[in-house]
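Students often ask why we bother encoding 3D structure as a string. The short answer is that it lets us treat folding as translation between two languages. Here is a chain of 511 residues written in the first language.
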Amino acid sequence: MSSPTSDEPPGLRTGTLTTADISFFVVSAAAPLTVMAGVAPVAILLGGIGAPVGYLLAGLTLTVFAVGFTTMSRHVRSAGAFYAYITRGLGKPVGIAAALVAMLGYNGMEIGVYGLLGSATSDTAAALGHHIPWLPVSLAGLLLIWYGGYRSIDFGAKVLGVLLVAETGILVLLAGGVLLDGGAHGLSLAGLAPAHVITGGTGAVLAFAFAAFTGFESTVIYRREAKNPERTIPRATYIAVAFLGLFYAFVVWTVIQAFGEDKVVQAAADDPGGLFFAAITTYVGAWAADLMHLLIITSILASLLAFHNAINRYALSLSEEGVLPKALGRIHPRHRSPYLAGAAQTALGALVVLAFAFAGADPYQQLLLWVNTPGMIGLMVLQLLAALAVPCFFRKIDHREGALRTVVAPAAAFVLLAGAIGLVTANVGLFTGASTTVNAVLVSVTPAVFLLGLLLAHRLRRTRPETYARFAAEPSDPGDPSCPHPTSSSSTPASATPSSPATPPSPSMAD
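And here it is in the second language, the structure alphabet:
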């Protein structure tokens, strides 16, 4: 592990995170227990017994996306993650706009969840005979997550590892109880038949399924802190997508078996919020239902910490780019964390939470759903742009990657992700439960922020040309990020031997 010398400022902890650590961050951000117990019953209600296939299809789509995404990760070493990839493929104006969308997406996905933390804790306390108002819980959560981000990244990885094992463990316990008992009427795979998968509710199920993977791509954010990032990041990405897709589908299928394929939809309609708790009470015991209530809270905390760490690193990168204030790029000398970026993000979260509270808003129906929805759409748009950026990037450089990875898979991912975004926006009312006007505003936030980013790029190019020129540059090249330095590892094929000739600089990227 590197340590700063006395005459240089501290940096992030390099060579710290393993494949397992990064996988914990990504899977924890998805909050499997919260997604299953809180959202999967609605997917079953809308899609019937074919709902598990929706999660498999979403996982398959994102696996296709990951092919080009991880291939490009071997050639792009900038810490800017999504916006760096998009800049290298589509140009600086789109990249700067993508950077603002990334901040919107990750902040929206995290800040809204503080409402879920407050409401879930209040509900759990009520189930145990106590009353706890949601706002103090949400504010306490803000402080707790701030502290987790303030500490070192390996501390956060250990915490998330423990919490993730706990929340997935309770779901495995539920599934094991159902399988051992044989379900309500015996185990059946009938729900996987096309007749049950292709129904009127298929689009809604797919929309919910794609939302359940939000944040999986954040593996590349931890590049600077990863051990052997050329191997660690692709492995963590594939592990996260495969685990989430298979695990979600398996758990939803077992819950369907718990009630029986002929009765589960009605059970979900009668009490969607209690579906998983009723199943685990029947097949494991009431104590397990009480434990699940508590673990939902820790699942939410794990998701918050994972998103908080990702946001801090995006803010750090953008401060280093000169787009955000330089102070946000300060690294704590002991913990080696972007602590001022974390403090700023916590302050923003507190401002939003307090604003919703003072307006008398519901922590779940409004703070969670209204803030999360633009965040979810923003991250999906980033995935779409990144898929488009991959073939554009590889057309500009000399490389030895195959066409399957650099053209076919990214093109397929672009088409599939465009369809997924269409499904989400068409079914946005299912996510928000809001009026048409509110839904229109929530959907328009992402394009509005993207347009703002394009205007910012134009302003930077005119008033701060040096900052504009350095945006998303490779670490070895302070100039145009489309031109890797001839001696940089990003400009030579991964398979090249030491005697291979250096790859010539790529053509300049259009600004």
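Translate back mentally: Residues 1-6, 477-511 have pLDDT under 50 and may be disordered. Keep this in mind for the problem set.
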